[in-house]
Amino acid sequence: MSRLTQEERRQREAIVADDAQFDALLEAAFRVPVPEKAPAKRPGGSRWPALVAVAATMVLAAGAWFGLRTVDPVHAVSPLGPDIIAHINHEPAALAVSARTVPEAEFGDVLQRGGASLGGPIGRVSYAKLCPFRGQMVAHFVVQGEQGPVTVMLLPDEESSAPATIDEDGFKGTIVPLDGGGSMAVVGQPDEDLEVIRDRLLQAVRWKL
Amino acid sequence: MKARILNLGLRRRYEQVVGALRQDLYRYALWLSRDPQAAEDIVQESLLRAWRGFDSLEDAGKAKPWLVTIVRREFLRFRERQREETMDPAVVAEIAEDEADPRVQELRTAIFGLEETYREPLALQVLMGHSTDEIAEIMGLTQGAVLTRLHRARDKLKQAFVEDGIAVQVETG
Q1: Which residue in A has a C-alpha nearest to residue B24's C-alpha?
Q2: Contact at 8 Å (CB) between A79 and A107?
Q3: Residues 97 through 136 of chain B touching chain A, CB cutoff 8 Å
Q4: How far is it, in rounded angstroms, from Cα A129 to Cα A76?
Q5: Which of B11, B76, B91, B150 has the most CB atoms lying inside 10 A of its own CB?
Q6: pTM across the whole model
């Protein structure tokens, strides 16, 4: 029994006789849909070494280079400081004393949309949002320090070649370059021990390419 | 400090090059492996390798064949480790049907059924836009062999397209 009618068959014969028409269909056939996210692993089957799963993100670990380095005690003042503090002041809810812990999935989503991921613990996150900053959407979150909330902003497009300080409007902080590019701002109360938090973040934050 | 800045520039260049090709690299890996999960894994591992070796890429114009070659090698590694056939006809059917035009659906199914020797050069030509010369270099073949395979691949697909039913059966071995 024929699947195609005579007319359909004639049409198809005309298509295969015309290279341009046939190749257009062929190209459409090759352009299969591309998943936005990696499909879920099939149950029961690890067919590929765990290394590959780990490699899902390009590991541009923040890192060791900074933590292990002898830091010059005299840091330049960051030109981004006023913008960062203005942004913090613009979102007072972020610094409100809150017992809330941002759910892991929600925080992960903010990081992902901000082009980053975490490779280690950073403590309780009480606020996380993707925010506009100097024309880019960046991950802005708050972790809890000893003295109160500490704001963290991951700035993939802000180049910084050395650590710089922020001292504005009652806040103190630092902007440090991240390995692989961009930088991270860590801002808290003047009496907060930001170095501990900064180093923990440097160990954990990874850019995703 | 200089190294930081250089690294930043390198990363930007890498993102630019890879960002433009990522989707087609996935498609190429899928046509090689016929398995979406494997294609994801292959591309992810390939991009990691590409990043590690990116500073050795001197000519950005050669980025595409360079990346295609990395994906191809990664697929070959994957196949070596593969102990059993993983192509799932249901997955193939799902991918084929993710297309409104039934003619394209049928062609997609037929391409999945082509032997790898025909499927790969056709993907490199039609999907990746490589010349026969480039395909010969990527696959380690003569240009004549590539032309023959491309011709036969098209013939098989044309035959499947006009004959009743999909003449090319999905090869599972």
Answers
A1: A31
A2: no
A3: 98-99, 101, 103-104, 107-108, 111, 122-123, 126-127
A4: 28
A5: B11
A6: 0.54
Q: Which residues of B touch A208 (CB under 8 A)?
A: none
Largest CA distance in chain B: 67
Buried b (16+ CB within 10 A) or exposed e, A66-98: beeeeeeeeeeebebbebbbebbeeeeebbeee
Question: Within an 8 Å CB–CB cutoff, is residue A177 touching chain B?
Answer: yes
B54 touches chain A (CB under 8 A): no
Residue A56 has pLDDT above 70, yes or no: no
Reference A61, options A156, A182, A163, A202; nearest CA is A202
Average pLDDT, chain B: 84
Q: What single-letter amino acid sits at B99?
A: E
Token pair belonging to A160: 């910084």
This model of the complex carries an ipTM of 0.86
With the CA atoms of A193, A164, A59 and A68 taken in that order, what torsion angle do they form, in degrees rounded to the nearest 10? Answer: -60
Contact B11 A13 (CB under 8 A): no
> In the predicted model, is pLDDT for residue B4 greater than 70?
no
pLDDT tens-digit readout, B17-34 = 888 788 999 999 999 999
In the block, which residue shows the tokens 């025909």? Answer: B118
Q: How far is A178 from chain B (nearest CA, A)?
A: 9
